[in-house]
Design a protein that fits this description.
The complex is a heterotrimer of chains A (126), B (285) and C (223). Chain A has 126 residues and is mainly α. Helices cover 60% and strands 6% of the residues of chain A. Chain A is built from 5 helices and 2 strands, in the order αααββαα. In chain A, helix 1 (13-26) crosses helix 3 (50-62). Chain C has one domain (2-165, 176-219). The chains are: A mainly alpha (126), B alpha/beta (285), C mainly alpha (223). Chains in contact: A-B, B-C. The interface between B and C is medium-sized, with 30 and 21 residues.
Protein backbone atom coordinates (compact mmCIF):
# COMPACT_ATOMS: atom_id res chain seq x y z
CA UNK A 1 0.00 0.00 0.00
CA UNK A 2 1.52 3.30 -1.09
CA UNK A 3 0.70 6.67 0.36
CA UNK A 4 2.65 9.66 -0.90
CA UNK A 5 2.46 13.00 0.85
CA UNK A 6 3.54 16.34 -0.48
CA UNK A 7 4.68 18.83 2.13
CA UNK A 8 4.77 21.62 -0.38
CA UNK A 9 1.26 21.26 -1.68
CA UNK A 10 -1.42 23.64 -0.52
CA UNK A 11 -3.75 20.73 0.05
CA UNK A 12 -3.83 19.91 3.76
CA UNK A 13 -1.96 16.72 4.52
CA UNK A 14 -4.91 14.96 6.13
CA UNK A 15 -6.89 15.64 2.99
CA UNK A 16 -4.17 14.09 0.85
CA UNK A 17 -4.30 10.94 2.94
CA UNK A 18 -8.10 10.78 2.77
CA UNK A 19 -8.05 11.05 -1.01
CA UNK A 20 -5.37 8.44 -1.45
CA UNK A 21 -7.00 5.92 0.82
CA UNK A 22 -10.32 6.48 -0.88
CA UNK A 23 -8.68 5.72 -4.21
CA UNK A 24 -7.08 2.58 -2.87
CA UNK A 25 -10.46 1.40 -1.71
CA UNK A 26 -12.23 2.34 -4.91
CA UNK A 27 -9.79 0.62 -7.21
CA UNK A 28 -9.80 -2.48 -5.08
CA UNK A 29 -6.25 -2.43 -3.66
CA UNK A 30 -7.82 -2.29 -0.25
CA UNK A 31 -10.55 -4.83 0.08
CA UNK A 32 -13.44 -5.00 2.46
CA UNK A 33 -12.29 -5.98 5.91
CA UNK A 34 -8.60 -5.22 5.26
CA UNK A 35 -6.87 -3.65 8.24
CA UNK A 36 -5.44 -0.19 7.91
CA UNK A 37 -2.13 0.76 9.55
CA UNK A 38 -2.58 2.19 13.04
CA UNK A 39 -2.82 5.95 13.37
CA UNK A 40 0.57 6.11 15.03
CA UNK A 41 2.36 3.74 12.69
CA UNK A 42 1.16 5.71 9.73
CA UNK A 43 2.31 8.93 11.39
CA UNK A 44 5.76 7.57 12.17
CA UNK A 45 6.28 6.12 8.71
CA UNK A 46 5.17 9.25 6.90
CA UNK A 47 6.94 11.46 9.44
CA UNK A 48 3.86 13.48 10.15
CA UNK A 49 1.86 14.22 13.24
CA UNK A 50 -0.46 11.54 14.58
CA UNK A 51 -3.03 14.27 15.00
CA UNK A 52 -3.08 14.53 11.22
CA UNK A 53 -3.50 10.82 10.60
CA UNK A 54 -6.16 10.65 13.26
CA UNK A 55 -8.06 13.39 11.49
CA UNK A 56 -7.77 11.58 8.16
CA UNK A 57 -9.13 8.40 9.65
CA UNK A 58 -11.94 10.28 11.35
CA UNK A 59 -12.95 11.83 8.05
CA UNK A 60 -12.81 8.48 6.28
CA UNK A 61 -14.97 7.00 8.97
CA UNK A 62 -17.41 9.86 8.75
CA UNK A 63 -17.80 9.26 5.05
CA UNK A 64 -18.31 5.58 5.60
CA UNK A 65 -15.14 4.28 3.99
CA UNK A 66 -13.63 2.76 7.09
CA UNK A 67 -14.69 1.49 10.46
CA UNK A 68 -12.68 1.94 13.65
CA UNK A 69 -12.86 -0.28 16.67
CA UNK A 70 -11.34 0.71 19.98
CA UNK A 71 -8.34 -1.45 20.74
CA UNK A 72 -8.48 -3.26 17.41
CA UNK A 73 -7.75 -0.59 14.85
CA UNK A 74 -9.38 0.54 11.64
CA UNK A 75 -10.71 -1.61 8.84
CA UNK A 76 -12.06 -1.03 5.37
CA UNK A 77 -15.80 -0.84 5.49
CA UNK A 78 -18.11 -2.97 3.46
CA UNK A 79 -18.45 -0.81 0.42
CA UNK A 80 -21.74 -0.23 -1.13
CA UNK A 81 -20.73 -0.64 -4.78
CA UNK A 82 -23.69 1.31 -6.01
CA UNK A 83 -22.97 4.19 -3.68
CA UNK A 84 -19.34 4.28 -4.76
CA UNK A 85 -20.23 4.35 -8.39
CA UNK A 86 -22.70 7.13 -7.78
CA UNK A 87 -20.05 9.18 -6.01
CA UNK A 88 -17.67 8.68 -8.87
CA UNK A 89 -20.32 9.64 -11.39
CA UNK A 90 -20.82 12.85 -9.48
CA UNK A 91 -17.15 13.68 -9.84
CA UNK A 92 -17.37 13.12 -13.61
CA UNK A 93 -20.41 15.37 -13.71
CA UNK A 94 -18.57 18.12 -11.90
CA UNK A 95 -15.62 17.92 -14.26
CA UNK A 96 -17.89 17.98 -17.29
CA UNK A 97 -19.69 21.03 -15.96
CA UNK A 98 -16.31 22.76 -15.66
CA UNK A 99 -15.33 21.77 -19.19
CA UNK A 100 -18.66 22.97 -20.58
CA UNK A 101 -18.32 26.30 -18.80
CA UNK A 102 -14.82 26.73 -20.18
CA UNK A 103 -16.02 25.87 -23.68
CA UNK A 104 -18.90 28.33 -23.48
CA UNK A 105 -16.48 31.07 -22.44
CA UNK A 106 -14.79 30.87 -25.82
CA UNK A 107 -18.08 30.11 -27.56
CA UNK A 108 -17.05 26.64 -28.66
CA UNK A 109 -20.03 24.89 -30.31
CA UNK A 110 -21.37 21.70 -28.71
CA UNK A 111 -20.37 19.39 -31.56
CA UNK A 112 -16.80 20.59 -31.46
CA UNK A 113 -16.72 19.90 -27.77
CA UNK A 114 -18.01 16.34 -28.27
CA UNK A 115 -15.48 15.78 -31.05
CA UNK A 116 -12.68 16.99 -28.75
CA UNK A 117 -13.88 14.60 -26.09
CA UNK A 118 -13.80 11.65 -28.52
CA UNK A 119 -10.23 12.43 -29.56
CA UNK A 120 -9.07 12.74 -26.00
CA UNK A 121 -10.88 9.58 -24.90
CA UNK A 122 -9.10 7.62 -27.63
CA UNK A 123 -5.75 9.04 -26.54
CA UNK A 124 -6.39 8.10 -22.93
CA UNK A 125 -7.10 4.51 -23.94
CA UNK A 126 -3.68 4.29 -25.49
CA UNK B 1 -5.67 10.22 32.10
CA UNK B 2 -3.73 13.16 33.42
CA UNK B 3 -2.02 15.61 31.15
CA UNK B 4 1.68 15.03 31.02
CA UNK B 5 2.34 18.71 31.50
CA UNK B 6 -0.02 21.28 32.91
CA UNK B 7 1.38 24.72 33.49
CA UNK B 8 -0.82 27.59 34.60
CA UNK B 9 0.10 31.21 35.05
CA UNK B 10 3.72 30.49 35.74
CA UNK B 11 5.78 33.55 36.52
CA UNK B 12 9.40 34.08 37.43
CA UNK B 13 11.70 37.03 37.51
CA UNK B 14 15.41 36.52 36.89
CA UNK B 15 17.35 39.72 36.92
CA UNK B 16 16.17 41.71 33.95
CA UNK B 17 14.25 38.88 32.43
CA UNK B 18 10.74 37.98 33.37
CA UNK B 19 8.53 35.02 32.57
CA UNK B 20 4.99 36.30 32.55
CA UNK B 21 1.98 34.08 33.24
CA UNK B 22 3.01 31.16 31.10
CA UNK B 23 0.28 28.61 30.49
CA UNK B 24 0.19 25.53 28.30
CA UNK B 25 -0.43 21.83 28.55
CA UNK B 26 0.50 18.60 26.83
CA UNK B 27 -1.64 15.48 26.68
CA UNK B 28 -0.01 12.04 26.59
CA UNK B 29 0.88 10.57 23.24
CA UNK B 30 2.21 13.67 21.59
CA UNK B 31 5.32 15.66 20.89
CA UNK B 32 5.34 19.32 21.77
CA UNK B 33 7.93 21.64 20.36
CA UNK B 34 8.77 24.67 22.43
CA UNK B 35 10.14 27.30 20.18
CA UNK B 36 11.36 30.84 20.44
CA UNK B 37 14.38 33.01 19.82
CA UNK B 38 17.40 32.94 22.10
CA UNK B 39 16.63 34.45 25.44
CA UNK B 40 12.89 34.03 25.08
CA UNK B 41 12.59 31.91 28.19
CA UNK B 42 12.71 28.34 26.90
CA UNK B 43 15.47 27.11 29.19
CA UNK B 44 14.02 29.04 32.10
CA UNK B 45 10.68 27.34 31.67
CA UNK B 46 12.29 23.92 31.50
CA UNK B 47 14.36 24.61 34.58
CA UNK B 48 11.23 25.65 36.42
CA UNK B 49 9.54 22.41 35.41
CA UNK B 50 12.43 20.39 36.81
CA UNK B 51 12.65 22.49 39.94
CA UNK B 52 16.12 23.77 39.16
CA UNK B 53 14.58 27.20 39.65
CA UNK B 54 11.84 28.11 42.06
CA UNK B 55 8.63 29.54 40.63
CA UNK B 56 7.28 32.75 41.98
CA UNK B 57 3.66 32.19 41.12
CA UNK B 58 1.45 29.83 39.18
CA UNK B 59 1.32 26.05 39.15
CA UNK B 60 3.35 23.35 37.49
CA UNK B 61 1.92 19.87 37.36
CA UNK B 62 3.51 16.93 35.62
CA UNK B 63 1.49 13.72 35.41
CA UNK B 64 -0.98 15.49 37.67
CA UNK B 65 1.68 15.68 40.37
CA UNK B 66 2.75 19.00 41.83
CA UNK B 67 6.35 19.56 40.93
CA UNK B 68 7.35 20.60 44.42
CA UNK B 69 5.19 18.47 46.67
CA UNK B 70 5.65 15.25 44.74
CA UNK B 71 9.05 16.09 43.38
CA UNK B 72 10.75 12.71 43.72
CA UNK B 73 7.86 10.66 42.37
CA UNK B 74 7.48 13.03 39.47
CA UNK B 75 11.15 12.96 38.59
CA UNK B 76 11.17 9.16 38.50
CA UNK B 77 9.00 9.39 35.43
CA UNK B 78 10.94 12.06 33.60
CA UNK B 79 13.79 11.48 31.22
CA UNK B 80 15.72 14.66 30.65
CA UNK B 81 18.43 15.96 28.38
CA UNK B 82 19.69 19.37 29.39
CA UNK B 83 23.21 19.32 28.16
CA UNK B 84 25.51 17.03 26.29
CA UNK B 85 27.15 15.78 29.39
CA UNK B 86 27.07 16.51 33.04
CA UNK B 87 29.42 13.69 33.70
CA UNK B 88 33.12 13.71 34.25
CA UNK B 89 34.97 13.34 30.97
CA UNK B 90 36.91 10.32 32.19
CA UNK B 91 33.80 8.29 32.76
CA UNK B 92 33.12 5.58 30.22
CA UNK B 93 29.79 4.91 28.52
CA UNK B 94 29.38 1.84 30.71
CA UNK B 95 30.04 3.83 33.88
CA UNK B 96 27.53 6.46 32.91
CA UNK B 97 24.86 3.79 32.49
CA UNK B 98 25.80 2.21 35.79
CA UNK B 99 25.79 5.55 37.53
CA UNK B 100 22.36 6.67 36.39
CA UNK B 101 20.81 3.25 36.91
CA UNK B 102 21.11 3.63 40.66
CA UNK B 103 18.67 6.50 40.78
CA UNK B 104 15.76 5.28 38.72
CA UNK B 105 13.38 2.59 39.88
CA UNK B 106 12.51 1.51 36.38
CA UNK B 107 15.98 1.46 34.90
CA UNK B 108 16.11 -1.16 32.17
CA UNK B 109 19.65 -2.30 31.52
CA UNK B 110 18.67 -4.35 28.48
CA UNK B 111 17.02 -1.29 27.01
CA UNK B 112 20.10 0.84 27.67
CA UNK B 113 22.25 -1.74 25.89
CA UNK B 114 19.84 -1.70 22.97
CA UNK B 115 20.15 2.05 22.59
CA UNK B 116 23.87 1.93 23.17
CA UNK B 117 24.29 -0.46 20.28
CA UNK B 118 21.81 1.36 18.09
CA UNK B 119 23.65 4.63 18.59
CA UNK B 120 26.99 2.93 18.19
CA UNK B 121 28.46 3.89 21.56
CA UNK B 122 31.28 1.54 22.61
CA UNK B 123 31.09 0.58 26.28
CA UNK B 124 34.67 1.34 27.12
CA UNK B 125 34.90 4.68 25.38
CA UNK B 126 35.39 7.67 27.65
CA UNK B 127 33.21 10.70 27.32
CA UNK B 128 36.11 12.86 26.26
CA UNK B 129 36.67 10.53 23.34
CA UNK B 130 33.14 10.94 22.04
CA UNK B 131 32.16 13.36 19.33
CA UNK B 132 29.52 16.01 20.04
CA UNK B 133 26.90 13.96 18.25
CA UNK B 134 27.75 10.84 20.22
CA UNK B 135 27.60 12.71 23.49
CA UNK B 136 24.13 13.92 22.62
CA UNK B 137 23.09 10.38 21.76
CA UNK B 138 24.48 9.12 25.05
CA UNK B 139 22.42 11.64 26.99
CA UNK B 140 19.39 10.56 25.02
CA UNK B 141 20.07 6.86 25.55
CA UNK B 142 20.28 7.44 29.28
CA UNK B 143 17.05 9.45 29.28
CA UNK B 144 15.24 6.75 27.33
CA UNK B 145 16.37 3.79 29.40
CA UNK B 146 14.13 4.03 32.42
CA UNK B 147 10.72 3.93 30.75
CA UNK B 148 10.11 7.59 31.44
CA UNK B 149 6.65 8.77 30.63
CA UNK B 150 7.78 12.23 29.68
CA UNK B 151 10.94 13.28 27.95
CA UNK B 152 12.05 16.83 28.57
CA UNK B 153 14.79 18.04 26.30
CA UNK B 154 16.41 21.45 26.18
CA UNK B 155 17.75 22.11 22.69
CA UNK B 156 18.75 18.51 22.13
CA UNK B 157 19.86 19.02 18.57
CA UNK B 158 21.72 22.28 18.52
CA UNK B 159 25.21 22.07 17.17
CA UNK B 160 24.58 18.70 15.55
CA UNK B 161 24.83 17.76 11.92
CA UNK B 162 21.63 16.91 10.00
CA UNK B 163 22.28 13.19 10.11
CA UNK B 164 22.62 13.01 13.87
CA UNK B 165 19.67 15.34 14.21
CA UNK B 166 17.56 13.02 12.13
CA UNK B 167 18.65 10.06 14.25
CA UNK B 168 17.66 11.83 17.42
CA UNK B 169 14.36 13.09 16.08
CA UNK B 170 13.44 9.62 14.85
CA UNK B 171 13.98 8.29 18.34
CA UNK B 172 11.75 10.98 19.80
CA UNK B 173 9.12 10.11 17.25
CA UNK B 174 9.29 6.46 18.28
CA UNK B 175 8.64 7.38 21.88
CA UNK B 176 5.15 8.61 21.13
CA UNK B 177 4.20 5.40 19.41
CA UNK B 178 3.17 4.63 22.97
CA UNK B 179 0.06 6.71 23.61
CA UNK B 180 0.90 7.07 27.30
CA UNK B 181 4.23 8.78 26.76
CA UNK B 182 5.15 12.19 25.45
CA UNK B 183 7.99 14.43 24.47
CA UNK B 184 8.58 18.09 25.25
CA UNK B 185 11.54 19.71 23.64
CA UNK B 186 12.73 23.20 23.13
CA UNK B 187 14.55 24.25 20.04
CA UNK B 188 15.25 27.11 17.78
CA UNK B 189 15.95 24.80 14.86
CA UNK B 190 12.52 25.19 13.38
CA UNK B 191 12.97 22.61 10.65
CA UNK B 192 13.23 19.94 13.33
CA UNK B 193 9.90 21.02 14.69
CA UNK B 194 8.32 20.93 11.26
CA UNK B 195 9.37 17.31 11.11
CA UNK B 196 8.44 15.93 14.44
CA UNK B 197 6.11 18.08 16.51
CA UNK B 198 2.41 17.50 16.96
CA UNK B 199 1.95 20.67 18.97
CA UNK B 200 3.97 23.82 18.87
CA UNK B 201 4.19 26.45 21.57
CA UNK B 202 5.83 29.74 20.77
CA UNK B 203 7.46 31.79 23.44
CA UNK B 204 8.97 35.22 23.05
CA UNK B 205 10.23 37.61 25.65
CA UNK B 206 8.82 35.58 28.46
CA UNK B 207 5.33 35.30 27.04
CA UNK B 208 3.49 32.57 25.20
CA UNK B 209 2.49 33.88 21.82
CA UNK B 210 0.82 30.84 20.38
CA UNK B 211 0.16 27.25 21.36
CA UNK B 212 -1.51 25.05 18.80
CA UNK B 213 -1.19 22.02 16.57
CA UNK B 214 1.25 21.93 13.73
CA UNK B 215 -1.66 21.12 11.48
CA UNK B 216 -3.32 24.38 12.31
CA UNK B 217 -0.13 26.24 11.58
CA UNK B 218 0.15 24.52 8.23
CA UNK B 219 -3.48 24.95 7.27
CA UNK B 220 -4.77 28.13 8.81
CA UNK B 221 -1.60 30.15 8.96
CA UNK B 222 0.04 31.32 5.81
CA UNK B 223 2.52 33.77 4.44
CA UNK B 224 0.76 36.19 2.12
CA UNK B 225 2.52 38.22 -0.50
CA UNK B 226 0.99 40.82 -2.73
CA UNK B 227 1.07 44.21 -4.34
CA UNK B 228 1.31 47.23 -2.08
CA UNK B 229 -1.95 48.62 -3.29
CA UNK B 230 -3.86 45.67 -1.85
CA UNK B 231 -2.42 46.01 1.60
CA UNK B 232 -5.06 48.33 3.11
CA UNK B 233 -7.97 46.09 2.15
CA UNK B 234 -6.60 42.95 3.70
CA UNK B 235 -4.73 44.40 6.63
CA UNK B 236 -7.49 43.28 8.94
CA UNK B 237 -6.75 39.67 8.00
CA UNK B 238 -3.09 39.92 8.82
CA UNK B 239 -1.39 39.32 12.15
CA UNK B 240 1.92 40.83 11.19
CA UNK B 241 3.20 42.32 8.00
CA UNK B 242 6.21 43.83 6.34
CA UNK B 243 6.43 46.28 3.47
CA UNK B 244 9.24 45.94 1.01
CA UNK B 245 10.28 47.96 -1.98
CA UNK B 246 8.33 45.69 -4.26
CA UNK B 247 5.24 44.80 -2.33
CA UNK B 248 4.21 43.52 1.06
CA UNK B 249 4.31 40.24 2.87
CA UNK B 250 2.46 39.22 5.95
CA UNK B 251 1.38 36.47 8.28
CA UNK B 252 -2.24 35.52 8.49
CA UNK B 253 -4.30 32.91 10.24
CA UNK B 254 -7.07 33.13 7.70
CA UNK B 255 -5.33 31.40 4.85
CA UNK B 256 -8.51 30.10 3.25
CA UNK B 257 -10.07 33.55 2.89
CA UNK B 258 -6.97 35.05 1.38
CA UNK B 259 -6.56 32.15 -1.01
CA UNK B 260 -10.03 32.73 -2.38
CA UNK B 261 -9.08 36.30 -3.12
CA UNK B 262 -6.90 35.11 -5.94
CA UNK B 263 -4.77 38.25 -5.94
CA UNK B 264 -2.11 37.03 -3.61
CA UNK B 265 0.56 34.44 -3.29
CA UNK B 266 -0.48 32.43 -0.28
CA UNK B 267 2.00 29.89 1.03
CA UNK B 268 1.80 27.43 3.87
CA UNK B 269 3.38 28.91 6.97
CA UNK B 270 6.31 27.09 8.41
CA UNK B 271 7.26 27.28 12.05
CA UNK B 272 10.14 29.55 11.12
CA UNK B 273 7.82 32.00 9.41
CA UNK B 274 5.70 32.38 12.49
CA UNK B 275 8.74 33.00 14.62
CA UNK B 276 10.18 35.56 12.20
CA UNK B 277 6.96 37.47 11.71
CA UNK B 278 6.17 37.66 15.36
CA UNK B 279 9.66 38.89 16.11
CA UNK B 280 10.28 41.20 13.21
CA UNK B 281 7.00 41.96 11.55
CA UNK B 282 4.94 45.04 12.17
CA UNK B 283 1.89 44.78 14.29
CA UNK B 284 -1.41 45.50 12.66
CA UNK B 285 -3.07 48.29 14.59
CA UNK C 1 24.22 7.30 47.66
CA UNK C 2 26.95 4.77 47.09
CA UNK C 3 27.32 5.76 43.52
CA UNK C 4 27.80 9.37 44.48
CA UNK C 5 30.47 8.44 46.98
CA UNK C 6 32.17 6.22 44.45
CA UNK C 7 32.21 9.07 42.04
CA UNK C 8 33.74 11.46 44.54
CA UNK C 9 36.40 9.06 45.64
CA UNK C 10 37.39 7.20 42.54
CA UNK C 11 36.29 8.93 39.45
CA UNK C 12 37.11 12.42 40.50
CA UNK C 13 40.32 11.53 42.18
CA UNK C 14 41.95 8.96 40.01
CA UNK C 15 45.29 10.44 40.82
CA UNK C 16 44.50 10.39 44.48
CA UNK C 17 45.14 6.68 44.44
CA UNK C 18 48.77 7.66 44.22
CA UNK C 19 48.79 11.04 45.94
CA UNK C 20 47.08 10.00 49.15
CA UNK C 21 49.39 7.13 49.98
CA UNK C 22 52.23 9.40 48.94
CA UNK C 23 51.28 11.96 51.52
CA UNK C 24 50.67 9.23 54.07
CA UNK C 25 54.19 8.01 53.52
CA UNK C 26 55.50 11.52 53.87
CA UNK C 27 53.73 12.13 57.14
CA UNK C 28 54.82 8.79 58.54
CA UNK C 29 58.36 9.67 57.63
CA UNK C 30 58.21 12.98 59.43
CA UNK C 31 56.26 11.74 62.43
CA UNK C 32 59.53 10.95 64.14
CA UNK C 33 59.69 14.66 64.87
CA UNK C 34 56.46 14.66 66.79
CA UNK C 35 57.66 12.31 69.45
CA UNK C 36 55.07 10.77 71.68
CA UNK C 37 52.03 12.13 69.96
CA UNK C 38 53.39 11.01 66.62
CA UNK C 39 50.62 8.66 65.64
CA UNK C 40 47.81 10.92 66.66
CA UNK C 41 49.21 13.95 64.95
CA UNK C 42 50.02 12.04 61.80
CA UNK C 43 46.52 10.63 61.70
CA UNK C 44 45.04 14.07 62.09
CA UNK C 45 47.24 15.63 59.49
CA UNK C 46 46.55 13.02 56.87
CA UNK C 47 42.84 13.08 57.63
CA UNK C 48 42.53 16.81 57.36
CA UNK C 49 44.50 16.74 54.15
CA UNK C 50 42.36 13.95 52.68
CA UNK C 51 39.17 15.63 53.75
CA UNK C 52 40.01 18.99 52.30
CA UNK C 53 41.37 17.48 49.08
CA UNK C 54 38.31 15.34 48.54
CA UNK C 55 35.96 18.18 49.30
CA UNK C 56 37.72 20.59 47.00
CA UNK C 57 38.20 18.21 44.11
CA UNK C 58 34.60 17.07 44.26
CA UNK C 59 33.16 20.54 44.35
CA UNK C 60 35.53 21.70 41.65
CA UNK C 61 34.61 18.95 39.22
CA UNK C 62 30.93 19.29 39.99
CA UNK C 63 31.09 22.91 39.09
CA UNK C 64 33.10 22.47 35.92
CA UNK C 65 30.80 19.77 34.64
CA UNK C 66 27.65 21.47 35.87
CA UNK C 67 26.93 18.14 37.45
CA UNK C 68 24.52 19.70 39.89
CA UNK C 69 22.12 20.14 37.01
CA UNK C 70 21.92 16.40 36.71
CA UNK C 71 21.64 15.87 40.45
CA UNK C 72 18.84 18.34 40.85
CA UNK C 73 16.90 17.05 37.85
CA UNK C 74 17.18 13.40 38.80
CA UNK C 75 15.05 11.83 41.53
CA UNK C 76 17.72 12.21 44.18
CA UNK C 77 16.77 13.76 47.51
CA UNK C 78 18.93 16.70 48.58
CA UNK C 79 19.78 14.92 51.79
CA UNK C 80 21.35 12.07 49.82
CA UNK C 81 23.42 14.49 47.79
CA UNK C 82 24.73 16.32 50.82
CA UNK C 83 25.29 13.31 53.03
CA UNK C 84 27.17 11.47 50.30
CA UNK C 85 29.58 14.36 50.04
CA UNK C 86 30.18 14.33 53.78
CA UNK C 87 30.57 10.57 53.66
CA UNK C 88 33.12 10.71 50.85
CA UNK C 89 35.24 13.12 52.82
CA UNK C 90 35.08 11.01 55.95
CA UNK C 91 35.91 7.85 54.00
CA UNK C 92 38.77 9.66 52.40
CA UNK C 93 40.13 10.50 55.83
CA UNK C 94 39.72 6.93 56.97
CA UNK C 95 41.56 5.75 53.89
CA UNK C 96 44.37 8.15 54.74
CA UNK C 97 44.56 6.80 58.26
CA UNK C 98 44.65 3.25 56.95
CA UNK C 99 47.60 4.13 54.77
CA UNK C 100 49.34 5.75 57.71
CA UNK C 101 48.80 2.69 59.85
CA UNK C 102 50.09 0.39 57.12
CA UNK C 103 53.16 2.45 56.49
CA UNK C 104 53.89 2.83 60.18
CA UNK C 105 53.58 -0.90 60.65
CA UNK C 106 55.89 -1.52 57.71
CA UNK C 107 58.34 1.00 59.09
CA UNK C 108 58.31 -0.80 62.42
CA UNK C 109 59.00 -4.09 60.73
CA UNK C 110 61.90 -2.50 58.93
CA UNK C 111 62.98 -0.98 62.24
CA UNK C 112 64.30 -4.41 63.15
CA UNK C 113 67.16 -3.62 60.80
CA UNK C 114 67.30 0.12 61.27
CA UNK C 115 66.10 1.41 64.61
CA UNK C 116 65.86 4.91 63.23
CA UNK C 117 62.81 3.80 61.34
CA UNK C 118 60.83 3.05 64.43
CA UNK C 119 57.60 4.90 64.45
CA UNK C 120 55.28 5.48 67.27
CA UNK C 121 51.98 3.70 66.87
CA UNK C 122 50.34 4.23 70.17
CA UNK C 123 46.65 4.57 69.80
CA UNK C 124 44.69 5.68 72.75
CA UNK C 125 41.20 6.81 73.46
CA UNK C 126 42.36 10.40 73.53
CA UNK C 127 43.99 10.14 70.15
CA UNK C 128 40.90 8.60 68.64
CA UNK C 129 38.71 11.19 70.22
CA UNK C 130 40.80 14.10 69.06
CA UNK C 131 40.77 12.58 65.60
CA UNK C 132 36.99 12.28 65.55
CA UNK C 133 36.62 15.80 66.83
CA UNK C 134 38.97 17.22 64.21
CA UNK C 135 37.19 15.44 61.38
CA UNK C 136 33.78 16.47 62.63
CA UNK C 137 34.65 20.09 63.18
CA UNK C 138 36.66 20.57 60.03
CA UNK C 139 33.86 19.08 57.91
CA UNK C 140 31.25 20.97 59.84
CA UNK C 141 33.09 24.17 59.08
CA UNK C 142 34.20 23.50 55.52
CA UNK C 143 31.19 21.93 53.90
CA UNK C 144 28.51 24.55 54.36
CA UNK C 145 30.95 27.15 53.10
CA UNK C 146 31.64 25.10 50.00
CA UNK C 147 27.97 24.44 49.45
CA UNK C 148 27.12 28.09 49.83
CA UNK C 149 29.90 29.72 47.89
CA UNK C 150 31.19 26.96 45.69
CA UNK C 151 34.71 25.99 44.83
CA UNK C 152 35.74 28.94 42.76
CA UNK C 153 35.01 31.65 45.29
CA UNK C 154 36.47 29.87 48.30
CA UNK C 155 39.63 28.56 46.71
CA UNK C 156 41.95 31.35 47.75
CA UNK C 157 40.55 32.44 51.10
CA UNK C 158 40.52 28.88 52.38
CA UNK C 159 43.96 28.14 51.04
CA UNK C 160 45.21 31.04 53.11
CA UNK C 161 43.39 29.71 56.12
CA UNK C 162 44.83 26.25 55.64
CA UNK C 163 48.31 27.69 55.67
CA UNK C 164 47.65 30.18 58.42
CA UNK C 165 46.19 27.82 61.00
CA UNK C 166 49.01 25.29 61.33
CA UNK C 167 51.50 28.11 61.05
CA UNK C 168 49.91 30.03 63.86
CA UNK C 169 49.31 26.88 65.93
CA UNK C 170 52.73 26.81 67.53
CA UNK C 171 52.56 30.55 68.20
CA UNK C 172 49.27 30.21 70.01
CA UNK C 173 50.52 27.25 72.00
CA UNK C 174 53.62 29.17 72.99
CA UNK C 175 51.59 31.99 74.50
CA UNK C 176 52.11 32.16 78.29
CA UNK C 177 48.58 31.67 79.52
CA UNK C 178 47.72 29.17 76.87
CA UNK C 179 49.26 26.24 78.63
CA UNK C 180 47.37 26.86 81.82
CA UNK C 181 44.12 27.31 79.96
CA UNK C 182 44.72 24.17 77.96
CA UNK C 183 45.57 22.09 81.02
CA UNK C 184 42.46 23.37 82.73
CA UNK C 185 40.35 22.55 79.71
CA UNK C 186 41.96 19.17 79.34
CA UNK C 187 41.30 18.30 82.96
CA UNK C 188 37.63 19.04 82.45
CA UNK C 189 37.28 16.80 79.53
CA UNK C 190 39.44 13.92 80.61
CA UNK C 191 37.78 10.92 82.01
CA UNK C 192 34.90 8.94 80.58
CA UNK C 193 32.32 11.70 80.94
CA UNK C 194 34.51 14.14 79.15
CA UNK C 195 35.00 11.75 76.29
CA UNK C 196 31.33 11.19 75.86
CA UNK C 197 30.69 14.90 75.96
CA UNK C 198 33.25 15.60 73.28
CA UNK C 199 31.94 12.79 71.15
CA UNK C 200 28.40 14.05 71.39
CA UNK C 201 29.46 17.60 70.62
CA UNK C 202 31.34 16.43 67.54
CA UNK C 203 28.38 14.44 66.36
CA UNK C 204 26.09 17.41 66.88
CA UNK C 205 28.43 19.70 65.00
CA UNK C 206 28.64 17.23 62.15
CA UNK C 207 24.92 16.66 61.87
CA UNK C 208 24.11 20.29 62.41
CA UNK C 209 26.44 21.20 59.62
CA UNK C 210 24.82 18.60 57.37
CA UNK C 211 21.39 20.03 58.10
CA UNK C 212 22.69 23.50 57.34
CA UNK C 213 24.21 22.33 54.09
CA UNK C 214 20.95 20.72 53.04
CA UNK C 215 19.11 23.96 53.65
CA UNK C 216 21.70 25.91 51.72
CA UNK C 217 21.57 23.46 48.85
CA UNK C 218 17.80 23.49 48.68
CA UNK C 219 17.66 27.26 48.64
CA UNK C 220 20.13 27.63 45.85
CA UNK C 221 18.87 27.98 42.33
CA UNK C 222 20.66 26.28 39.51
CA UNK C 223 21.01 28.83 36.80
Amino acid sequence: MDIIISNQSDVPIYQQIVVQIKNLIMNGELAEGDPLPSIRTLAVELQISSITTKRAYEELEREGYIVSQVGRGSFVNAQNKELMREKRIKIVEEKLVEAIAAAKMIEMPRDELIQLMDILYEEELK
Amino acid sequence: MNDLIEIKDLSKKLGNFELKNISFSLAPGYVMGFVGPNGAGKSTTIKLMLNLLRKQSGSIKLFGLDNVKDEMEMKQQIGFVLDETYFHECMTVKQVGWFVSGFYRNWDEALFQQYRKKFDLPEKKKIKELSTGMKAKLSLAVALSHHAKLLILDEPTSGLDPIVRDDILSELFQVVKDPDRGVFFSSHITSDLDKVADYITFISNGEIILSTTKDEINEKYAVVKGAKKHLPEIKSHLIRYRETQFGFEGLTNEAAILRKHGQFVVEKAKVEDIMLYFEKGEVVC
Amino acid sequence: MLRLIYRDLFIYQKRNLVVLPGFALLFVFFSQEFGYAGMGLTMIMISVYALVMTAYTSFAYDETNKFNRFLRSAPIPSSTIILSRYASCVFSSIMGVVYVVIFSALANVAAVYNPALRRDMTMSMEVLLVWITMIAFVSAFLMPILFKFGYVKTKYPLMLLVIAVPASGPMILAAPNMNQGLTAALSVISGKNGYILIFILSLLAFLGSAALSITIFKRKEEL
